[in-house]
Design a protein that fits this description.
Shape: globular
CATH class of the largest domain: Mainly Beta
Largest sheet: 5 strands, mixed
Distance between the termini: 29 Å
Number of helices: 2
CATH architecture of the largest domain: Sandwich
Number of strands: 9
Strand order of the largest sheet: 1-7-6-9-4
Oligomer: single chain
Length: 133
């Protein structure tokens, strides 16, 4: 299915937020790796301590769960404790990669970048000092 048809399907047929997330996961195969577009300060939402990765269980930094992870976890893929829909990279000098659920799709956040509305992510990897997307 072409990207345009996927976009038309998402816009025209899907109504619920969970169904949109499922369709976006299907569309993820069209774009396997991409950089973050939001920067720190844009829809910055709730606080996240400097020197950490913060993730939330819903879009716009909401939901029942929040995880805050330090740089001591750097270098390895870590399974999230819950599905992650928004994130903040509050590291000053490390990238963060997030992997989508059941796909090879990777979301990359440079130091200081945020994403208030991701598709469902399942794991993350904190980069080495100086790493960028």
């Amino acid at each position: 299915m072409s990207r345009e048809r996927v976009q038309m399907y998402i816009r025209g047929k899907l109504r619920s937020a969970s169904a949109k997330r499922i369709a976006l996961l299907a569309a993820a195969a069209l774009v396997p790796v991409f950089p973050a577009t939001a920067s720190a300060g844009a829809n910055d939402g709730p606080q996240c301590s400097n020197g950490n990765l913060c993730v939330w269980s819903d879009v716009d930094y909401g939901g029942s769960f929040k995880g805050e992870y330090p740089d001591s976890l750097a270098g390895n893929w870590v399974a999230g404790e819950f599905p992650m829909y928004s994130a903040k990279n509050k590291f000053g000098n490390r990238r963060v990669q997030l992997q989508a659920w059941n796909t090879p799709w990777i979301r990359c956040l440079d130091p200081g970048e945020v994403d208030p509305d991701m598709v469902m992510m399942r794991s993350f990897k904190i980069g080495a000092p100086g790493s960028r997307c």
